[in-house]
Write a structure and sequence with these properties.
Elements (H helix, E strand, L loop, with lengths): L2 H4 L4 H5 L10 H6 L6 H12 L7 H7 L7 H4 L7 H14 L5 H13 L17 E5 H7 L1 H13 L5 E5 L5 H6 L2 H17 L4 E4 L5
Length: about 210
């Protein structure tokens, strides 16, 4: 196991005094607040680990200001996984009951209906097929017409996919919020559905999915 995978939070030690990706952070660009920047969040975590600050409402809110967009890592010349480090710290905050109330609201929604937008349960796939199309909860709720259009395009190529994860979150948002168990549960359900349908090739609607 590499040092990077052993404790990803150690990434903050490499990022806390580095300004190379600062100009790419949308949160810092909007707020013009140095605290809300990649190196600001890294310094925040590093300071807490040294006992210089403690997690309170203000410091926790500052850490959760990170949008988990991935711009910092995408443009890092040394590939520092800072978003993963921040997510790992958020996992600890959730476990210690220190996360913002909104995070628990997200967790309750996911535990109840496996999606973020309504109380409707996911529609399970039952057909067998070589191809699957992962829909998720966002497209199912907001842009079902996009799913229909993609299906028409695939039909023109002679591809008839099974709809996978229809109305079920992909786990990316809860994972970034520190909701580890919820993210793992969603991923497990999606993988079970793929396996049950015998999917060999899975298509997705977005890079995030």
């Amino acid at each position: 196991m590499s040092a990077r995978s052993h404790n990803v939070i150690d990434t903050t030690e490499n990022c806390r005094y580095c300004l190379m990706c600062r100009h790419l952070c949308p949160v810092e660009n909007v707020t013009n607040n140095e605290v809300f920047s990649p190196h600001g969040w890294a310094q925040l975590v590093a300071s807490e680990r040294r006992g210089l600050i403690s997690w309170d409402e203000t410091s926790v809110a500052s850490l959760y200001a990170c949008a988990d967009c991935g711009n910092c890592e995408s443009h890092c010349v040394t590939d520092q996984p800072l978003p993963n480090a921040i997510a790992a710290v958020r996992v600890k905050l959730v476990e210690e009951g220190l996360a913002p109330a909104a995070v628990e609201q997200v967790a309750r929604k996911l535990r109840t209906s496996s999606n973020l937008y309504n109380a409707r349960k996911p529609v399970p796939a039952s057909e067998k097929a070589e191809y699957g199309l992962f829909v998720g909860d966002e497209a199912d709720h907001f842009t079902p017409a996009v799913v229909d259009a993609v299906l028409r395009l695939l039909d023109a190529t002679g591809t008839a996919p099974v709809l996978i994860g229809r109305g079920r979150n992909d786990g990316v948002i809860p994972g970034g919020l520190g909701l580890k168990s919820e993210a793992q549960a969603l991923a497990t359900e999606n993988l079970k559905e793929i396996e049950f349908c015998g999917i060999k090739k899975l298509l997705v609607l977005s890079p995030g999915a």
